[in-house]
Amino acid sequence: MPQVNTVTFDLWQTLIIDTPEVSRPRAQRRLNGILEVLRKEGHTYVLDDLQRANRSSFKILDAIRDQELKDVTFDEQIDLYVKEVDTALPGVLSTGARAGIVREYIDSYMEHLPRVDEHAVDVLAKIDQMGLKLGLICNTGATPGITQRVFLKQVGIAQYFDVLVFSDEERLSKPAPRIFHLTLERLGALASETVHVGDHPTNDVVGAKQAGLRAIWLRRKPEEQPLVAPDTSIDSLRDTLTALLDLNGKAEE
After folding, report:
1. What pTM was estimated for this model as a whole?
2. Is 51 exposed, middle or buried (0-12, 13-18, 19+ CB in 10 A)?
3. I need a surface site. Which of 4, 49, 214, 245 has the fewest CB within 10 A?
């Protein structure tokens, strides 16, 4: 088996940790902000209308990502949400109000940020020092890649990556093999020489293995076993380097 010379990482719950204590206030902040944007333009919706639209649009988006292994652009996500508030709203919503809704999505995230795993920067720096190629593959959800790029730069993570790939920008969603292959094409890497590190049993482990990569499973929730066995498992991000050395040691045998 070839030596690993390329590492790709998941983002959510791998390099950054989001918890209900942060995500719930973020969602509430976003909805309150959107409600204020609409009220300023004379639309008489109430918070229940926006919460209903939030649930229904997320259900539609989850189906696209989970069943079709695709994603929508951030603009398409906004358009879908506006339509779910009221099917008539897209036809009467001003350009300024729509821009205001976009700002609420972005501002709510930047005001209620996930925390960076305490070992993330050190692990990435050491992998970079080893001379390995580094890529990020992220299913974005409600936060677009353009916003994550700003955040990752602010917290000192972006500088270590040769390639950043976000599902909303590619209209592809893990575990689709194509999003892994697209990342490898941009890195100039081979699947057989790449290992993917992530927490999600399906998106990260099954997705990587089906795409021909090796997989290191970060067991944030060890009770959720992947349907395909990872090449190795770790219980903390700090163990990534040891796992990489072990994989390369096995490759030499």
Report:
1. 0.96
2. middle
3. 245
